[in-house]
Amino acid sequence: MKFVTFSGPPSSGKTSVILKVIECLKNEESKFGVIKFDCLTTYDDLLYKKAGIEVMVGLSGNLCPDHFYISNIDNCIRNGVKKGLELLISESAGLCNRCSPHIKDILAVCVIDSLSGVNTPKKIGPMLKYADIIVITKVDIVSQAEREVFTFMVKEANNKAKIIYVNGLTGQGAYELSLNIKKAKSIENLEGEKLRFTMPSALCSYCLGETIIGEDFQTGNTKKINFDEIKSSRNNQAKYSFNRNTQDLKAEDTTINSISILGGHDKSGNKENIELTINVGEVICIVGPTGSGKSRLLEDIECMANGDTPTGRVVKVCGDNLKDNKLVAQLSQNMNFVMDVSVEEFIVMHAQSRNVLELENITSKIIKFANELAGEKFSRDTPITSLSGGQSRALMIADTAFLSVSPIVLIDEIENAGVDRGRALELLVKEGKIVFVSTHDPILALLGDKRIVIKNGAINKVVKTSPKERDNLKIMKLIDNKMLELRNALRGGKLIDWDMEEYFHGRN
């Protein structure tokens, strides 16, 4: 029987990830089991039972959950073998960050979510530091830039582990994780095996049931704070452990020649008869009704789908040094930030995570162009969490244009951001990248070289922008400029009480 340990902070998404992985592995004859360890109670066993998974539950009560885990796990293995399970996964809450359930020569997975804070990877301890695979969840909720900074901090804590992004709702990334689970070691018991890291030293009087506070009641293994030895982030040179003087070498630039999309199927299961190749320098717009599947196509490209997404599409890239850098830069509809840092600090952190030199120069350039795109300017000292939706999108557009070496750029509905979308697109495409734009805006749609029409979750047709459409685009831009003037007038507190017919149809 194969055995894998899953651990991670509470509410990081461990159960959802495990369910999606087993869904990828399962067939009619397979038999999988999960042993869920927790302290007081759990409801996750109901989810496992509903999915047809053999489940066992161990509640530690007033005992340390990780000590309880290691005292019982061998019996759990033997029980799983007795039941004829092909795979047993242990899930532990990791409530004590000093503990670690990882066992030598047993595949160890740590699940951590991207909303937990940039310093969390270093706080978790051996549970993350000694893991073979680190799964990062909830990455769809934050911007790609913040995701990259968080990933960089994970690598700082454990540079040997394989990092996989998994969406616990859609299952994206679960297939890749399942391939690694298949390689897990088969065992019959854990007799004589060793932990990868020692448990905390014990015991003190409070471990044994003492409740009264005071030195007379503190016996056994105790430890006192030395108030003369201050250990605080306030004394660190950099708030988030980055050194501005770091001079890392750049990775060799990634170059691509083309990207190909091989059809999968639509929402009804019908075959998607498409084989589309896009060359470098092209701008491809994606159009279709709300809910038709535009964002899903972008997600397939972002994860380089290999038939492992809900659409069944395959995305292939032709180029050089494809493994040296991240291939895709994405501007999604989610521009949320959770880091408690300023705009300047965030850009510096993102730049260092990409091994970019000349930090002051690149920071100034990004802020300058972001303010040119945004309606309301912001400073480098502005807290990143206080940026408006338009300011956040403007910052990420400039960040992607000047900081990203990714040769493919994905943009999801830029027209909703309150920024100069034409200028934004011009800024992004000038570096000879392949750009995909999901849009409802007719002007943006005609700015592209081609447009992909999505219907019922599949590519229905590909339309090349015609010369006549280019001519009409000029007229549409004139009308759009008029609308921009109206927006600026409203923002400036002016009354819109003039002759609209003359304004739109009169001589310019």
UniProtKB/TrEMBL annotation:
GO biological process: protein maturation
Keywords in alphabetical order: ATP-binding, Nucleotide-binding
PROSITE patterns in the cross-refs: ABC_TRANSPORTER_1 (PS00211), ABC_TRANSPORTER_2 (PS50893)
SUPFAM superfamilies assigned: P-loop containing nucleoside triphosphate hydrolases
Keyword Nucleotide-binding tagged: yes
UniProt-recorded Gene Ontology molecular function terms: ATP binding; ATP hydrolysis activity; GTPase activity; nickel cation binding; zinc ion binding
Key word Nucleotide-binding present: yes
Domain ABC transporter: 249-481
Protein name per UniProt: ATP-binding cassette domain-containing protein
Lineage of origin: Bacteria, Bacillati, Bacillota, Clostridia, Eubacteriales
